[in-house]
Amino acid sequence: MEWLSAENLVAVATAVLGIIASGVMVWYERRVPRRKRIGYRVQMDNPIGDDVRSGRANRRLGLFDEAPGMADATLVLLRIENDGSQGIDRDDYTGPELHGLTAVFAGRTVRGVSVTQPSDTDHLMDHFTAAGGFAYDGNALRIPRVPLNRGDHFKLLVLLAGGDVGDEIRLVGGLRDGEVHPNRSATPDDKPPLFSRAARLITIALTASVVTLAAIVVAQDDTPPPIGCAGGRLTLTGSTAFAPVLREVAGKYERDCGGDPVIDVDTHGSTAGIRELAAAGAQGSRDGQGSPPVVALSDGPKPAGLPELRENRVAVSVFALVVNDDVRLTNLSTNDVRRLYRGEIRNWRQLGGPDLPVHLVSRDANSGTRQVFQRRVLGRGEIANSSVDCVHKDDPTAAVIRCELDSTDQVLATVADLPGAIGYSELNLAARAKGLHSLRLDGDPASADAIEHGTSDYPYREIQYAYTYGRPPADSLASSFLTYLARGNGQDVIRTHGHLPCWTPEGLTLCAQD
């Protein structure tokens, strides 16, 4: 489901959280703040007498020392306040007794009490009368039904006997639509919070959701998939020299198109790839399946006699002759190369090089790189194979040692390891190899840039063809991939690997040449 993406889920969750938060705040505004509340706290609980077990040491003078019963006395200051958002009336107290609240001092006996209040609430004192239920008995202090506006408070200074400092003190009573609860005051260093705890939690949750959504949006690759993406499975075969390009472009196509297409790269040489495509196409025609999902890349044009194969010119590939680093030559004429590959040059000293025997390291007959070399440089086929391991001559009548290998990588590795060896390769692969170097031909370097700008007649180059069996359907993966490779994002990959894309102003001219 396309809408079930990470950013959509976070966006929906943020919206739902916002709606819930708004509802909670409305409920909180209507329900919680409107509750009637009486809060109380002990602001002082100090010893007076000597016999208070956990009290601090003290000194007494006057009545505190002379009055009877002071040996185990304590003094408590109890603050009672309306800390809700509504005023409290006499009728809001729910107890059946005359008084409204009861302060209970566990383990101690009330000996006396004094009431204090702020100067602007003198009217509260009128309620502290015996007729209003103001009295004490044992450990209980009965407090009248005192009406309290929001924020009003009063204090009770209570003289107690017996017990210990810190014994439990609680306020008992009930309020209609409210509660009596212990509270606390801010210390002098405390600052009241700007927002309530609920508001802070909701703000943090909303902020986290918005930041998460923003991070997803920023990090997400919003680049739309290339026009004409297609699904299915496709096999790319043929040129091993062009295989690195195919692997990278195939991976890029799969990522850009959402991972639905699957593209397999299985290269075994240009000629082998052409034959594989022709066989698959013939089988598909017999089965009535049309053009098979196979594209064959070839270094140069297909062999004659395969009219069903349709070509697409993709790039100009540049190849290089490479020699072992012990052969310190950097330039050969085309004529010298032809003499080498006819077996007329057996030792490099014949060309002004070191005293090393020549080893010709070639590709097998399926190689497009070899076919380009024969067509563009030698003007003929190579001489017969005379060695299996490229080191020893298996045919004693052969003029030089010549071997054939299955891949470009094998050629490069063998040339790098074998003194006196010479071979050929796609230019970009040769440039990265160690232990060998490229040769100029007739003074022209193996350079794609020089060829592109028309400053070099370097001959060892060829058009890279992509063949299909007939014309694949326009909405097929084969057709879509070829467009992507030749005219889309594949052009950048082609250039990165040292080839010249055909669908550029310079490439169009070069690719139009036979």
From TrEMBL:
Domain of life: Bacteria
Pfam annotation, one family: PBP_like_2
Record field: transmembrane: 6-28, 201-219
Stretches for region Disordered: 279-303
Residue ranges annotated for the PBP domain, each copy included: 230-486
Keywords carried by this UniProt record: Membrane, Signal, Transmembrane, Transmembrane helix
InterPro entries from the UniProt entry: PBP_domain (IPR024370), Phosphate_ABC_transporter (IPR050811)
PANTHER family documented for this protein: PERIPLASMIC PHOSPHATE BINDING COMPONENT OF PHOSPHATE ABC TRANSPORTER, PHOSPHATE-BINDING PROTEIN PSTS
Entry protein name: Phosphate-binding protein PstS 1
Organism: Streptomyces chartreusis NRRL 3882
